[in-house]
Amino acid sequence: MTTAKRDTYTPESLLSVAVRVFNDRGYDGTSMEHLSKAAGISKSSIYHHVSGKEELLRRAVSRALDGLFGILDEEHARVGPAAGRLEHVVRRMVEVLIAELPYVTLLLRVRGNTATERWALERRRDFDHRVAELLKAAAAEGDIRDDLDGRLATRLVFGMINSIVEWYRPDGRGAGEREVADAVVRLVFGGLREVR
Amino acid sequence: MTTAKRDTYTPESLLSVAVRVFNDRGYDGTSMEHLSKAAGISKSSIYHHVSGKEELLRRAVSRALDGLFGILDEEHARVGPAAGRLEHVVRRMVEVLIAELPYVTLLLRVRGNTATERWALERRRDFDHRVAELLKAAAAEGDIRDDLDGRLATRLVFGMINSIVEWYRPDGRGAGEREVADAVVRLVFGGLREVR
DNA sequence: GTCTATATTACGATAGAC
DNA sequence: GTCTATCGTAATATAGAC
After folding, report:
1. In whole angstroms, what is the distance from residue B30 CA to residue B18 CA?
2. Do the beta carbons of residue B164 and residue B94 sit within 8 Å?
3. Which helix (H) or strand (E) holds A101?
4. B146 touching A, CB under 8 A?
5. Which residue of B has its CA nearest to A135?
6. Of A25, A154, A176, B98, which sits 20 to 30 A from B54 (CA to CA)?
């Protein structure tokens, strides 16, 4: 994955540059000038590859959403007791989030100012609801403590998982993907407290 | 929902309007024109009260940071076993976050494009470190399970708490402040799993 | 304190040469 | 595919009347 990709840009290779800048400065805080500097080509050259800023955003969040929805199609997310399926989805969410880190990061920061952003928010809500259903099913099967509201618990668990984009960096110095996924699963299902 | 408090604006009353718009559109996505429409006065009138957009941001994040750091000065955060102090801080973080919801929301979304934003990020890091120390102390006292990395666990717990700003609305329809704080404390310390 | 009008700069996007 | 030059718009901020 070390190929110096600067002979000519494709929409894809340009996207990886753009997403990095979007995540650094925020989508609204990024101008086409910023993108052009980061990509090393002029503004008008960018318009040769994509129709504009919003297309870059759409491509990025689509990629993130495809990764997340793909989890729900996996066999372990479809068969067996709901608690086990939920654990699989939680673990895989962490893995997908890390594998597609910049794209998911951008998705999670979308505000809703444009049509593309509102579409992304809607699809995120769909995904959240699918997972909330899973937690509800696990509760109905008696595997989730009954002093927690399902909707509330889902939101809090999503918050924990999604917050990983705020600090995870794939530089080998901090925790690795497996370590993070393990910690999330332990915390979400077992909590901090030492059981004695 | 147009005019409510309109006799004349103070920096404080203007701030509450501005913060609402910042949170809705994002700070970078908010123009002085947006603020002027929301406040019901002209752009230049806003400049009569504050020096510009960035002063509004500074006032808002200062208020949020004061609330959070105030927690660490409370007696229950200073005396007793570390695990108890940690639980107090976790619960109070939820309460402060809800009490100062728009201000904390804005603080948590700051990116770092301006000097004010970088200052806010730095103070947030200070606060995080203070809480991480507390968790470390609780672990040393044997009250935190030893298969969790302290730094990692702190980040995940912060992620869960901070994510509340993304969905909590004080309209009485959803969960109340007490209910959310209880759920967070239960989840953080005990996890989702039914203990049988 | 608030307004209208405007200076000035930055932005997204396009035209047309090479 | 990439460039320079530029258009039209919208942004932050100021000037000066009332």
Report:
1. 9
2. yes
3. helix A101-109
4. yes
5. B192
6. B98
Angle at B22 between CA B19 and CA B24, to 5 degrees: 110
Q: What would you report as the CA-atom Rg of chain A, rounded to the nearest whole angstrom?
A: 19
The DSSP 8-state label assigned to residue A168 in this structure reads: -
Predicted TM-score (pTM) of this structure: 0.94
**Could you give the CA distance from residue B64 to residue B47 in angstroms, rounded to a whole number?**
23
pLDDT tens profile B95-106: 999 999 999 999
Count of CB atoms within 10 A of residue A176's CB? 12
Residue A195 touches chain B, beta carbons under 8 Å: yes
B chain contacts of residue A143, beta-carbon cutoff 8 Å? 193-194
With an 8 Å Cβ cutoff, are B26 and A187 in contact? no
Which residue, counting CA atoms, is nearest to the C1' of nucleotide C15? A44
Q: What number of CA atoms fall less than 13 Å from residue B147's CA on the CB side?
A: 12
- A157 and B CB contact within 8 Å: yes
Q: Say if CB A70 and CB A62 are below 8 A apart.
A: no
C1’ D4 / CA A135, Å: 58
A142 vs B135, B163, B194: nearest CB: B194
Is residue A95 within 8 Å of A87, Cβ to Cβ? no
Give the position of tokens 């990692």. B152
Quote the CA–CA distance of A20 and A105 in Å, as a whole number: 10
pLDDT tens digit at each of 196 positions of chain A: 444 445 689 888 999 999 999 999 999 999 999 999 999 999 999 999 999 999 999 999 999 999 999 999 999 999 999 999 999 999 999 999 999 999 999 999 999 999 999 999 999 999 999 999 999 999 999 999 999 999 999 999 999 999 999 999 999 888 899 999 999 999 999 999 988 6
pLDDT at residue B4 tops 50: no
* The dihedral sign for the CA sequence B127, B131, B136, B141: positive
